[in-house]
Automatic annotation (TrEMBL):
This is Cobalt ECF transporter T component CbiQ. The keyword Nuclease does not apply. Keywords: Cell membrane, Membrane, Transmembrane, Transmembrane helix. The chain crosses the membrane at residues 43-61, 68-87, 107-130, 142-159, 238-258. Its main location: membrane. It is found in: Cell membrane.
Amino acid sequence: MGGGHAHPLYHHGDSVLHSTAPEVKIVALVVFVLAVVATPRELFWPFAVYALIIVAMWRLARIPLAWVLPRMLIEAPFLVLAVLLPFAEGGERIRFAGVHLSVSGLYAAWGIVVKGTLGVAASLTVAATTTARELPLALSRLRVPGTVISMITLMIRYIDVLTTEANRMRMARISRGDSPRGLHQAGALAKGVGALFLRSYERGERVYLAMLSRGYDGRIPELAVGTGSPAAATARQWMVAALPVSTAVVVAVTSWALR
């Protein structure tokens, strides 16, 4: 990757959160999401606290809401299930606006929506403050298997390449009279997806062989600080990151105690 390469979700900035070691942010994200998921869905106040923590991180990183909110629409397809649950679940029912809704279904829908939204928001916060170069290095420092790191690194590096290739194939079809929105073109679209898969697979093989020929041994090399590689996490960074994360853990434990 080039020195200045950044993925589409990265928000350029020079905040404290941007300069924090990436491994700290990844660990904080995992613990925070686990705390959110472990919180009983029947309570509402813990999720308000989690939301305040995320908003505080946005303010600290100087990430505007106008940048974050459109990117959170990525979870929209997963919310369809939440809309259906109050109608599909059984058990006790309540009447609202002339419609009988399942109480357990409402709680399940609430849990999916709020936990999914908070998880996406937290993930976007880390993605917005972590470059594509920092992610594999952080995973390497956290002792993640080299094969997994290689897969993630290549996925990040070539997602833009594959998107561009897909757009070129689409333009080629349109220039030959294709109608992408027509159902009669479903077969051609499926063939295009298959061709893109084969091209991606072959490209991956060529890239991997090129890496092996250059001495790749399954580990991501750590460059010297100042040449593009961020410094390893300091004790102070771990302590500062522990403040919002420990707050989330305390809230999750307290919610179970007060349930």
